[in-house]
Write a structure and sequence with these properties.
11 helices, globular, about 325 residues, alpha/beta, seven-stranded parallel β-sheet, Rossmann fold
């Protein structure tokens, strides 16, 4: 249990930040730092207006704005990044700038503060490249060619990992690195396969599958992921370590996922295959031995068990999500 702490979450208005804030807000002060709060997942959260919630509008690249918030925090969770394949491919320079400079700013401020009890850096499973079957924490990262804009996100996140671990090794800063593997659930919006499939199925529109749909993913429900995040915030064994967090049991192809969404939504949608316009990841499945051993991590939500509340949430907010997608 985390109690009596001031917890700063950068990128805090987003999907993971909102869910994590909901988990810890009753017994702690939670500060969500983000450049934009409008039309964000936080808008849909019951913690809006909570007496323990603080929101700060700012860019993680702005050290003078960010550093006072880091200096007041007991625990820092660094999530801020440009996300979504389309966003990353259009905004490569900004993607790298936000991740690398933002991470450097968070670490520098935490070192100067001298009292941060835990700093969680959320990286990405994409550091393992296009083919990552049962990858563990010591698996070799794969760096994509510079001519493919898709990889600007993962290379920046990987650089952030090295920077985080360097601060731990050289200054003793109590850091933890987390790599999420396909997290889904209610309140996730933006560019995301699960969201696109469900909203299209609820509208009885054709589901667009890139390539032949044989790409393999392991899907992790947000409640399970937050269990791992909270453990990383409190367990001493986590300090200085890196962890893959996901759910290997929920593994299937993208085509199979589309079929399952259609069935669960009781939709008349069909599946349409479209040509890939970007480099995709063929397979992404984690090994979780280390997280289970050191964090006590044990994901328990089956795929359809997590999809049921996710579908219902998208159904409830369908009109707003469709309007957002059209903007």
């Amino acid at each position: 249990m985390i109690e009596g702490k001031r917890i700063l979450i950068t990128g805090g208005a987003g999907f993971i930040g909102t869910w994590l804030a909901e988990r810890v807000i009753e017994r702690n002060t939670v500060v969500l730092y983000d450049h934009r709060f409008e039309s964000a997942p936080l808008d849909y959260s019951p913690i809006v207006g909570h007496p323990n919630l603080r929101t700060v509008r700012g860019d993680v690249r702005d050290y003078d704005r960010l550093s006072p918030e880091v200096e007041k925090a007991d625990i820092v969770v660094h999530l801020a990044a440009i996300v979504g394949v389309d966003n990353v491919m259009r905004r490569g320079r900004e993607t790298m700038d936000v991740i690398i400079l933002g991470t450097s700013n968070v670490l520098r401020a935490a070192e100067l503060a001298g009292h941060v009890e835990r700093l969680i850096y959320v990286s990405t499973s994409e550091v393992f490249g296009p083919s990552s079957f049962r990858v563990h924490e010591n698996s070799h990262p794969t760096v994509g060619p510079v001519t493919e804009a898709r990889w600007t996100y993962s290379i920046a996140k990987l650089a952030g990992e090295h920077l985080v671990h360097s601060y731990h090794r050289e200054t003793g800063l109590p850091t933890v690195i987390i790599r999420p593997f396909n997290i889904f659930g209610p309140k996730r919006i933006g560019d995301h396969a699960m969201l696109r499939f469900i909203t299209d199925a609820l509208g009885n529109r054709d589901l667009e599958v890139h390539g032949d749909g044989a790409q393999i993913r392991s899907w992790c429900y947000i409640e399970d992921f937050c269990d791992g995040m909270v453990a990383a915030m409190v367990r001493k064994e986590a300090i200085g370590e890196d962890f893959n967090l996901g759910c290997a049991e929920n593994t299937l192809t993208i085509y199979d996922l589309a079929q399952r969404v259609i069935r669960l939504c009781q939709s008349s949608s069909r599946i349409q295959f479209t040509q890939l316009s970007f480099t995709d990841i063929d397979i992404r499945v984690p090994r979780l031995d280390k997280a289970k051993r050191l964090l006590g991590y044990n994901p328990c939500y089956g795929l359809e068990e997590g999809m049921a509340p996710t579908i219902e949430w998208y159904r409830e907010h369908l009109d707003a999500l469709v309007r957002r997608a059209a903007e």
